[in-house]
Structure to design on (165 residues):
């Protein structure tokens, strides 16, 4: 199941929040920066995995924090540089999302919120990435809420109805 909404992803009622990360151990901007500040345990475990080389493009890391499960997804090899290099790659996003789909039950969640992964600081076009989300989650039993537009302090309607697309 998948639903596309506008609002503040950090007000989600989903059990988990998934987001894209570089694999260098830095969460210095964007959604990752907010995750770092709201869920320091998720950041510390991510940074430790980056330091030993176990967090790679196309991999995920699930961290149980006090109020949410955070799914760090390796969507960028490096921090995006001023010349645009180091950005997200669709194949890494697809691999991460497939890992979420294949492992969500054993990772302890039945709902997850995402931003438009890879499309802001990652440099990709949402029109190219949205079909990947639909392909993987449209027929899933996992409830997926994608925040297509960030509206601060606005709680989105995450209710699933027939034909949420």
């Amino acid at each position: 199941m998948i639903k596309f909404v506008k609002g503040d992803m950090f007000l989600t009622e989903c059990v988990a929040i998934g987001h894209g990360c570089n694999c260098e151990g830095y969460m210095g901007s964007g959604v990752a920066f907010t995750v770092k500040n709201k869920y320091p345990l998720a950041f510390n475990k991510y940074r430790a995995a980056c330091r030993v080389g176990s967090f790679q493009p196309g991999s995920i890391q699930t961290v149980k924090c006090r109020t949410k499960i955070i799914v760090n997804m390796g969507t960028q090899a490096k921090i995006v540089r001023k010349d645009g290099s180091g950005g997200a790659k669709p194949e890494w996003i697809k691999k991460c999302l497939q890992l979420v789909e294949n492992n969500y039950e054993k990772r302890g969640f039945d709902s997850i919120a995402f931003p438009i992964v890879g499309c802001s600081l990652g440099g990709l076009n949402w029109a190219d990435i949205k079909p990947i989300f639909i392909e993987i989650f449209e027929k899933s039993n996992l409830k997926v809420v994608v925040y297509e537009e960030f509206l601060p302090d606005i709680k989105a309607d995450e209710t699933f109805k027939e034909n949420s697309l």
Summary: The longest strand covers residues 69-76. The first helix runs from residue 30 to 38.
